[in-house]
Amino acid sequence: MNTRDLAYFHDLVELKSYTEVANKFSVSQPTITVAIKRLENEFGAQLVKRDYLHNRLLVTRAGVLLFQRTQQILQSLELAYSEVQNADSSVIRFGLPPIIGTMWFPLVAKELLDKGLLTHVQSIEAGSDQLLEKLRQGKVDVALLGSIRPLQEKKLDTFLLSVHSFKAVVSRKHPLVQKKHISFVELKGEKFVTFTNNFVHPQALASYSKYAGFRPQIVFSTPTLSLIKELVNAELGVSLLVDDAVKEQDNLCCLTLDDPLPEKFNMSLVVRKDFLPDKTQQEFISVLFKLKSLLGTSD
């Protein structure tokens, strides 16, 4: 079977146009037609048919089933090409969310530098949800991820490194600074500054708000931790952060939340199950494991 035929078929189902597919691959339209016929002969089933009355292309049930499998096949092929081409390079495609990169990765960064491992790292920075999807797609090999519950993924090896409680963060001028502990309902009516939706924090904020029985008024979302702290300090709103994110020089106050919710900031080391690390890559992973003993579980 010609894998290029599968690529033609995949895009034909998405674009519903022989002409557009031909233009995309810089081939003639008959080339696409012949490729589809080859696949139909191969599988013994009609995959697409023309609706001449409405001038459209219809995908049969057999075509839909093949399309679903084709997505997996093409993704696996793309991953195979990438891994084979980089087999001798010791490149580590490393996913690092900005929060973890700011607060905890520096604890092992010097050792990685001293061992010459950082020169092998191709860093991909994004929110934990985005990086998790890239791991599933094979576009990232290793990542440090945050989640509100411990991660469990069939195609990924996940190792919980540390657990951190969320805290309500307010400016030192806020009336609640006199309290060390609060219930989240006491923040009803407050304005909130939070991370964008591809981070873990908005999920935790939604859970706490639901438990407290109110919808949070989010006035600003950003992927930048320093900006969140500056806005809270300027009394534009309050935020939900892990206490490690707040330093003495930030001039902010962290309040412990007494609500009995299971949501925590779980930091995990995540590795693709089908990733076969060489000696250099394995040493990089081993150094990351040291974050578990350096941080442990705080609550």
Q: What's the layout of helices and strands?
A:
Layout: H1 3-15, H2 18-25, H3 29-43, E1 48-51, E2 56-59, H4 61-85, E3 92-95, H5 98-103, H6 106-114, E4 121-124, H7 128-136, E5 142-147, E6 156-164, E7 166-171, E8 181-182, E9 191-195, H8 201-212, E10 217-222, H9 225-233, E11 239-242, E12 252-257, E13 265-272, H10 279-289, H11 291-295
Parallel strand pairs: 3-4, 3-5, 8-12, 9-10
Antiparallel strand pairs: 1-2, 5-13, 6-13, 7-11, 7-12
Question: Can you describe what's shown?
Answer:
The longest helix is centred in the first third of the chain and has 25 residues, at 61-85. The mean pLDDT is 90. The termini are far apart. The radius of gyration is 25 Å and the shape is globular. The strands form 4 sheets. A 5-stranded mixed β-sheet has the order 4-3-5-13-6, sandwiched between helices. A 4-stranded mixed β-sheet has the order 8-12-7-11. A two-stranded antiparallel sheet has the order 1-2. It has 11 helices and 13 strands. Helix 1 packs across helix 2, helix 1 (3-15) packs across helix 4 and helix 2 (18-25) crosses helix 3 (29-43). Helix 8 (201-212) links the parallel strand 9 (191-195) and strand 10 (217-222). It is of the alpha/beta class and 299 residues long.
